[in-house]
Each structure stands twice: as structure tokens, then as C-alpha cells.
Amino acid sequence: MDEDFLWGASISPHQVEGSEGSDWSRWEQEYAEELANMAEDRFGDRGSWDMIAGEAEDPDNYISGEAIAHQDRYEEDIGYAADMGLDALRIGIEWSRIQPEEDGFDEEALEEYHAYFDAMEEEGIEPMVTLWHFTNPDWFVDEGGWHSDEAVERYGAYVDRVVEEFGDRVDHWVTLNEPSAWVRSAYGMGTLMPTGVDWPGGAAEDSLLPVQPLQAWRAYTNLAEAHHRAHDSIKDADPDAMVGTANSIGAWRAHGDGWLNGKIVDLLERFEYRDWIDRTEDAIDFVGVNHYVPIDVDVFMRGNDYRTSDMGWPVEPGSLEEVVRDIDGEYDQPVIVTEHGLADREDELRTEMVEEAVPMMERLREDGVDVEGYFHWSLLDNFEWDKGFWPRFGLIEIDHEDGLERRPRESARRYAELIRDR
Ligand code: BGC
Q1: What is the spatial distance between Cα 69 and Cα 170, in angstroms, rounded to a whole number?
Q2: pLDDT averaged over the chain?
Q3: Nearest residue to 192 via CA among 389, 386, 388
Q4: In angstroms, rounded to a whole number, what is the distance separating the alpha carbons of residues 247 and 281?
Q5: Whole-angstrom Cα distance, residue 407 to residue 401?
Q6: 240: which residues sit within 8 A by CB, 6+ positions away?
Q7: What pLDDT is recorded for position 121?
Q8: Is the Cα torsion angle 75, 81, 87, 88 positive or negative in sign?
Q9: CA of 129 relative to ligand 1 center, distance in Å
């Protein structure tokens, strides 16, 4: 495989180090107890229940705190990535950490990020930087969040500062992670995340409260504008920078190739990612693909026999290939797989997944598909949002019983071996 391809892994700030001044931390404090009480209803029917019940029913599981202490242990973590022979890490900058108040950037936090970039540089690991991965500073939310008229400019000011500070250290930028998926959840019915909307969304998963269409639409269009704003800021500083968004994209399949099923797939794909990419296509240098699940669409609801992750999501280790081929066919820009993985304590399916992914990338390139990177989600076990710590997504295990000790899993060893031998 040629030199330019990036083999990597991804993390996000809140999930590995927490974020004290963000809407997520505030929400967790409020809902941890309720989430623990809901655990059996939500996950009791999963095959993994016996394994996870102890953690899933414990309120502490739902409080990120300092998460897995990546902020203190990043040198060690980056060292593992280097040992694996990775070229790049997709990391994130936590907005609430560097701008805890609207009119104040935290100089110390900016210095800490410089040290973070230094550590990557020393290990020869290229950073891909995500500027927003679901968390918002408290002040931003208190002043109206993403549906406010000021949202784009507030985010823009944050991005300007990041670019001024780190622009010459970063070649790949992800302005927003899964913006359209986020809007659907944050403003949707019975959401299990901070809403930023003045209504009791909270932890009421079975709530019959309606979606918030007006705010959702404003947030969505603001996010698209915010992407453009960030793109311009980054490109003004460095015209060669690669800028994109990371988009949640499933492998949608029309059962039996039926006409109606096909129409539904088209509609859902439009809703999931196409509309967003159409809105931002004039301001991206790559299409970021976060791929997790194959999804069969069938009006007759016939079942399927996918294997499942510990979270109960359908898994097919090779489903990424059809997604990358489709996206490559649909858009002119190159594709970068910005996330691909699963919750798998036993690590069997994950190992299979990386064993599929590495030759898949090579095959795709040989076939002329313009894919420029593969980032496994995740480098480390981490804090999986409303599910807390029990889902284990890491190539590297974190032992919560043993001082957050890091232990590379078999899948990490295989991934390293495969990219070394290619
Ligand atoms: C998100 C990650 C998350 C992963 C697994 C993606 O949608 O970007 O933050 O941990 O999926 O759920």
C-alpha cells in the first residue's frame, strides 16, 4: 500500500478524559441514577446482559468524570498507537476545555494541547483533529445552543482560535462529528442525551414528547453554516489542509431488492447523510465515513441473522466495503473511514473486523476506489455516552478494576501485524 494511506484509530475528548464544563457532564450528573434504573429494560434482552449487568445497573457507570484519564496518560496511549505502527490518530479538541467562558480562552489548556501535539510528533503519529464531537460548553448551551442565531459565530470564534494556535501542526480536520445524527438525537423524541432545548427530554426514553422541529431545523442549518465557517477559517490559514466532516453511514440494504424497500432505503440515506453532504460538498476535501451497522429495510419486517455486538447492534465485519464503494461512486472527494468498530468484550468479532478491514482497504485502492485512510473506533475502551463505560470499543482494554491499566487486545496485535506485513 502506498505511503499516503493513513492507518489509524480514533478517540474523542469527552469519551476518554471527560469534560467538566460541558453539557454532557451536567446531564450525566442529573440522569445517572435514572439510567442505571432503566438498564435492564434497555439491555436485559441482549446476549451480553449477564456480563454487563453489574456495571450497567451501577449509577457510577454513567458519570464520565475523568473517564479513562487520557488527559494524564496520553503519552502512554500515544505510545501504544506508535507500537502498533499506526500512522495517525483521530483525536479531538474539547471546546469547553479551551473556552470555558465565552470571553475567555484558557491559556493553560492551550499549552496542554501543544504538549499533546508534541507527544504525537515525537512518536511520528499524525493528528487528525475533530473540532466538535457532541459536547458543548455550558455557556454555549445556556445561551441557546445550536439553534441560537449566534451559534455559528460562537463556534467560528472557537475554531479561529484553534486554527491560530495549531493550524501549522495539523493537516486533517474534522469540523463536526455526525452532525445530522446528533440533531436527530438531541432534538428527537425520547432522547437520551442533553437536548439544549427547554423541554424535559432527559432520560425518558419512552417519552411521547414530540420532536422539536423548528429548533432541530435551525440547529441543522446552523451546523451546515458552521462547517462552512470553519472550513474557511482553516483554509485561510492553510490552503492545503484537508477538511471534512465525519458522517454516520450505515450499509442500507433493500430486502430482496424490492422496489418499495429500495425507495425507503433512498429516503433514509438522504436523511442519514446525503442531504448533509449535498449542503457541504462545496467545502470538503474528503468524505469522512463512520460505519457501524448493516441495516435491512423490509416492509414485511422479515428478520435477518446478523451477529450482534455487546450493545445488540447488527454486525457484519465486511459491510464497510459496500459503503466505501457507494460513497466513492457518489462523490468526487476521497473517502476516509473515520470510525469503524464495535462493542466487543471478548474481542472475537473485532479481531475478525480488522482482519477484513486491512485487505479490504488494499483491494479498494487496487480497484481505483479513492479511499485515503482507515481509523478504527476506538484506540481505547472509553465512555460510550448514555451507556457509560460498560460497552468496550477499544483495541486496547482499560481495566477499571486495576487503576485503569491499559492492555492491548488480540485485535490490536492483529491490526498491527496486518499493517506491518502489507
Ligand atoms: C460516535 C462515537 C461513538 C460511536 C459508537 C459514533 O457515532 O462518533 O462517539 O462512541 O459511534 O457508538
Answers
A1: 24
A2: 94
A3: 386
A4: 13
A5: 13
A6: 171
A7: 98
A8: negative
A9: 16
Per residue in 207-250, pLDDT tens? Answer: 445 567 888 899 999 999 999 999 999 999 999 999 999 999 99
Q: For cell 449566534, what's the residue? A: 150
Residue identifier of the C-alpha nearest atom 5 of ligand 1: 384
Q: How far away, in angstroms, is 56 Cα from ligand 1 center?
A: 18
**What SS3 class is residue 396?**
strand
Q: What is the Rg, in whole angstroms, of the alpha carbon atoms belonging to the chain? A: 20
Q: Which amino acid is at 338?
A: T
Dihedral angle sign, alpha carbons of residues 306, 310, 313, 319: negative
How many angstroms is it from 387 CA to the middle of ligand 1?
11
Q: Does 137 or 192 have the greater pLDDT score?
A: 137
Instruction: Select from 169, 162, 160 the least CA-distant residue to 97.
Output: 162
Ligand 1 center–CA 182 separation, angstroms: 10
Question: HSE on the CB side for 241, CA within 13 Å?
Answer: 27
Residue 259, classed as helix, strand or coil, is helix
Please work out whether the CB of residue 178 comes within 6 Å of at least one atom of ligand 1: yes
pTM of the model: 0.97
pLDDT at 383 over 90: yes
